[in-house]
Amino acid sequence: MKYTITGATGHLGSIVLQDMIKLVGANNIRAAVHTPAKATGLAEQGVEVVEIDYLDTDTMTTTFKGTDVLIYIPSKTYDVLQRVTEFENTLTAMKEADVNEIIFVSFYADQENNPFTMSAYYGYVPRRLAASGLNYAVIKNSLYADPLVPYLPELIERKNLIYPVGNEALSFIAQEDSAEAIAQLAVKPELRNNGQVYTVTQKQHYTMVELGKIMTEVTGKPIGYAPVSVAEFAEIYASDGDGAELGSMYQAGAMGLMDLVTDDFEKITGHDPISMIDFLTLHYHK
């Protein structure tokens, strides 16, 4: 079996790739990356490294040939039309390369009334796959817990979380857990070849007051909750380049659209995901 992973040098993709090496061996993995020269370390591990250009279907067709299962991790652009174009080109290249199986890595902010910038894209792909004739599964991530760790020093200084979600709760998953679930899906055809849709979350969701209490316990510093408005949040993080997009995501949270909790991670892997307190305790260093 040959497994091709897109975005294989990204934060999530690199973890998925290493998990796949453990499960099936490096010789059965193809890393599809934009800049192969930056992936020499993967080649040294025995992984086949190939170039991918989502806007060039001929190159993508060559990249996908011989693939049994495509693990599709989307690019990070917030341009909805570009993302749709990239995925349509992927489907075209899969057809030309005779690839019939795909795992699409998605996000749970995809409801019809969700104001998140990328909601339309995440809503579109499952419907597109349903009509594609492919064998597929969709795995939706909840919010990553990982960015909370480097965010803690700022929160300690502020003494408050400021996410504009009011009294609503948010669900999280650690990237390592997400990657494990994706890799397990890839090697378990009975879980992925019939249009299954999974959402991976921790065992519980958290209001911001509850999350602040956990952060206080882990850091030893008081962290409460003093929400700003969506507009204020977008302005505060505008210099990071994604303030408006993140603001729209937390606007969805304030509507109660991002609090889903499932046991899908356990169904896929056979064990519980890491809890929020254990995750922060493991990764936070005073």
Beta-strand level of the residues, as a percent range? 15-25%
For this structure, what is the CATH class of the domain at 3-142 and 174-201 and 260-273?
Alpha Beta
Helix-strand pattern: EHEHEHEHEHEEHEEEHHEEHEHHHH
In what order do the strands lie side by side in the largest sheet?
3-2-1-4-5-6-11
Index terms:
alpha/beta; Rossmann fold; seven-stranded parallel sheet; two-stranded parallel sheet; 45% helix; 17% strand; NmrA-like; NmrA-type_oxidoreductase
Explain what the structure shows.
This is NAD(P)H-binding protein. InterPro entries: NAD(P)-bd_dom_sf, NmrA-like, NmrA-type_oxidoreductase. Pfam families: NmrA. The chain has 286 residues and is an alpha/beta fold. It has a domain at 3-142 and 174-201 and 260-273: NAD(P)-binding Rossmann-like Domain (Rossmann fold), CATH 3.40.50.720. The chain is 45% helix and 17% strand. The protein has 13 helices and 13 strands. It has helices spanning 11-24, 40-44, 57-64, 80-97, 119-130, 148-158, 175-186, 189-192, 208-219, 230-236, 243-254, 264-269, 276-283; strands at residues 3-6, 29-33, 48-51, 69-72, 101-107, 135-141, 143-144, 160-161, 169-170, 172-173, 196-200, 206-207, 224-225. A seven-stranded parallel sheet has the order 3-2-1-4-5-6-11, with helices on both faces. A two-stranded parallel ribbon has the order 7-10. Strand 4, helix 4 and strand 5 form a beta-alpha-beta unit. The longest helix is centred in the N-terminal third of the chain and has 18 residues, at 80-97. It is globular and about 55 Å long. It starts with a strand and ends with a helix. The model has no long low-confidence stretch (mean pLDDT 95).
